[in-house]
Amino acid sequence: MTIDIDAFLETVTEAIRDKDVPVVDLIAVQTRDPFKVLVATVLSARTKDETTARASKKLFKLAPDKEGLAELSEEKIAKLIYPVGFYKNKARYLTKLPEALDRFDGRVPDTIEELITLPGVGRKTANLVVSVAFGKPAICVDTHVHRILNIWNYVKTDTPLKTEMALRKKLPEKHWITVNSILVAFGQSICRPISPHCDLCPLEENCPQHCVKPRKIPGTKRKKNQPLTLLSWNVNGIRAMEKKGFIDLLPDLDADVIGIQETKAQPDQLSDELKNIPGYTSFWHSAEKKGYSGVAFYSRVKPLSIREGIGEPEFDREGRVLTLEFDTFYLINIYFPNSGNHLKRLDFKLRFNDCLLKFAKELEKKKDVVLCGDFNVAHKEIDLTHPKANEKHAGFTPEERHWMDTFIEAGFIDTFRMFNREPGNYSWWSYRFNARAKNVGWRIDYFCVNRRAEKRVKKAEILKDVMGSDHCPVLLEIC
Ligand code: SF4
């Protein structure tokens, strides 16, 4: 099988759009400084990107240029860059670097032949510096590049050097500069060295998968017509939840898809463990403002498509809506705005609500729609312990409740009330006054479906015993 390299690289570029950029590329973009790119590249050999980033930051604080580096002793450099791989050797090379650069008038040279004369600089490093720091055609071949291009049968080589030589003859020059960063990001996230995530890979159908053993996902073998279990949970800060054992708890909940709200984190603040809980793939949509709002999904079912936001920048910058498309329905995960103290954000919320409703109605024209999330409103008096006392408070104002009426009249069903018409069922309790123990709460987390999907709903529940947040998860089973 011969692959179309242009199409493959274009697909991969799209697939890694939200993944971490390799650290050296990041430093190149941030600093535009060949010296820093060269030093970071030397540090990055056989070292995780996070470690390289930390070590580079510490070193550049004291040695932002050749002169600064010349003032540091080998021991000091070793201390600063620890624990990068082979830090003692790298410290030795870096000590010699300022003098070596003097041969080039104190500048970092821009050819491979000159670069490989510098201490600790091999062909791979030289290629990377030439392409990333100087934007000149050169093919850097990281192990990911070598591995993936062999998986694709694009080259048949047994060393990165042979891969580089084969690519020089074969790869169109327009890909030379970018191929390394694209395939490194792809190799770190999807086409991993061990158990590649072929189930998530957009190339799965066309990839030769030469010598590949794709990962197995527990729980993905579904019996025909087996309902899907969906959960929705406002976690009130995913990093705080991680400390409370979220990573171990998630598999125990045994849901096929979990929509979470109020993640209060941006992707670079999340640990690898949190992003890659075994058996699940995670999708994140964060607010621009740090530590605020944010929604995410963990799914063990591969979605057909993922959509962030609702197409309105005013709302989308707050990271409030994330939609997964499955074969027979869309699942919209929403963190509705809170009307706030003195109802300062009530107008904003009502405008958001209207846009959201329009968004859901548009999707409904194509296939069924399931909406889940923290709606930040108790619809009826039965949905909170003290309705009278809260009539003027955020989450129970006539305006917010009226919008819920409009939403239901527009053809959406509150699935919990299909099965349970009893009072005393809540999904949120204040942290104050021992409210949860006394069951003084509000039902503000919902699963709703469009009317056409009503007959597909098998179960809707509140999992009030699941602890960790001031909200508990709500559940929907749908076939
Ligand atoms: S299908 Fe699997 S082996 Fe092929 S590129 Fe994708 S993740 Fe890698």
From TrEMBL:
One of its GO terms (biological process) is base-excision repair. The record marks N376 as: Transition state stabilizer. GO terms for molecular function: 4 iron, 4 sulfur cluster binding; class I DNA-(apurinic or apyrimidinic site) endonuclease activity; DNA binding; DNA N-glycosylase activity; double-stranded DNA 3'-5' DNA exonuclease activity; metal ion binding; phosphoric diester hydrolase activity. The keyword Lyase applies. Its EC number is 4.2.99.18. [4Fe-4S] cluster binds at C191, C198, C201, C207. It catalyses: 2'-deoxyribonucleotide-(2'-deoxyribose 5'-phosphate)-2'-deoxyribonucleotide-DNA = a 3'-end 2'-deoxyribonucleotide-(2,3-dehydro-2,3-deoxyribose 5'-phosphate)-DNA + a 5'-end 5'-phospho-2'-deoxyribonucleoside-DNA + H(+). HAMAP family: Nth. The record marks H471 as: Interaction with DNA substrate. Binds 1 [4Fe-4S] cluster. Probably binds two magnesium or manganese ions per subunit. DNA repair enzyme that has both DNA N-glycosylase activity and AP-lyase activity. The DNA N-glycosylase activity releases various damaged pyrimidines from DNA by cleaving the N-glycosidic bond, leaving an AP (apurinic/apyrimidinic) site. The AP-lyase activity cleaves the phosphodiester bond 3' to the AP site by a beta-elimination, leaving a 3'-terminal unsaturated sugar and a product with a terminal 5'-phosphate. PANTHER family: AP ENDONUCLEASE, DNA-(APURINIC OR APYRIMIDINIC SITE) ENDONUCLEASE. This is Endonuclease III. Mg(2+) binds at N234, E262, D374, N376, D470, H471. Its cofactor is [4Fe-4S] cluster; Mg(2+); Mn(2+). Residues 43-189 form the HhH-GPD domain. The active site is at Y335, D374 (proton donor/acceptor), H471 (proton acceptor).
